[in-house]
Each structure stands twice: as C-alpha cells, then as structure tokens.
Amino acid sequence: MHEFLLFAPVPVQQHHELLQQLSGLTAMQPRHRLERCLLFKANRKATRINTRLGGGSQDVQGAEIQRLFKMLNGSTYYVRVVGVVNRTDFGASADDYDHESQFWRMEWRDIPEAGIRSGVTSRLIANAALPQGDIVKVMETWGYTFVNEYVVEGDVFIYNDTTLFLHRVLNYPEDSQTAQTPRTTLPPLKDLTLLDRSGSYLLQASITVQDGVSSESATQRLYGLRDQLRTAVKLEQADRLSLDTRVK
What we know:
- The structure is a single chain.
- The chain is 17% helix and 33% strand.
- It is α+β, with helices and mostly antiparallel strands.
- The protein has a single domain (2-243), classed as Hypothetical Protein Pfu-838710-001 (Beta Barrel).
C-alpha cells in the first residue's frame, strides 16, 4: 500500500479550537486514542518468517506477514509494534491490565519517496496483525531487538477517505524505565512526560491507497483539505529525511 500525507504543527493553546473546527468539518466527535508504541531495530536481514508461532489463537496472519517480509527483506529498518490501550490501563495493577491479552500490530513505513514534486509526502507502507501478549520473542525470532517504548495520545477524525490524527508523544518517567523489555504494567498517565515540552500537537492528514491505484486523486483530495483548513493550520509536506526508518 501507499500512504499520502500532509502535516501541521499545532500550538497547545490552539488545540481545543482546532478540535472544534475538525468536528465541524467532519461532522463527528473526536475519537480519543491512546497507543503503546514499541520500537524495534532490525539486527540483520530476515531470512525466513515463521507464520505459525504456537498455533491456535497465536497464529499470525500469514498473508499479511509474508507481504511485510518482502518489504523488510530488501534492507534493515526500524519498525513499530502498536497496541491500543485505555486510559484505565495506566496506573492499573498487573491484574487489571492484562498484558498477555494486549493486541498488537506491526507497522512498517518506508523512507518517503525522493523526487516527488506533488507537494505531499508519499511512502510505501505495510501493516500486519501479531499475536497477543509478549511480543518480544516473536520479534527476536525475526531478527529484531527492542529499543524503546513511548505513548501516543490524540484524537482521530475521518473525513471521507482521509484520516486526521491530532496527537502528541508521551514518554515514560525516567524512574520507571525497564530498558531491556516492554512494560507489563503502565504507570499513571499523569506521570508521563511530553516529548515536546511546549505541549504542541501534530496534525497528520493521511490517505492510504492500494498499490497500482493512481496517486493523483489522493493528492488532489489532500490539496482540497489543505485549502479548507488554510485559515486554521498550514498543512505541508514533511521533510523526507525526518521520516527515514532505515537502520544505519
């Protein structure tokens, strides 16, 4: 699949007003979203992908993984493993937050394409559903090492086929770092710290199309959205190298 994107920084003092504007534009209330994001680093090119890891409910969606494997095999990348969580999961005991039942998906994002003059960011992407629970063993089997973990908090809007995600990144408190593995419990949400100390948000507007589908329509729709939001935010193409996911 290909993803087409525009981005805009949003100062914290503009956040509430922009939420209202996006609600009016999309005719929907914001869907609040919290994501655990685990970052993994490729140690080497994978040589094989075992799509059955324990059988039964632990089966990985084989077709998705095989497509992803073809993407990953050409080079080595950082990938994200993402799990949606609830506000009540933070500060909960191990009995209340069931780490073993956490659903995960792997997200691979290629470096954006070079030489694109359309004014939007374009990149090849792939997603795959993964087994529940402890995902480190699965990733290590494929040659990936856990690097870090953070939380993304924001609000999602859907406008026709465009996804609008107004979000910011939260870091775990330093005294709760467990460095080598993802957490099995989550600290209180209030204890997390902002990556951007100013509190600013990022608005991401994205359209995903199947490979082989013309990109012109997606580009024009993003242009239209940019014009509609011109008085509120300045949606722009991202710097290509700032989105580089390759392991150096």
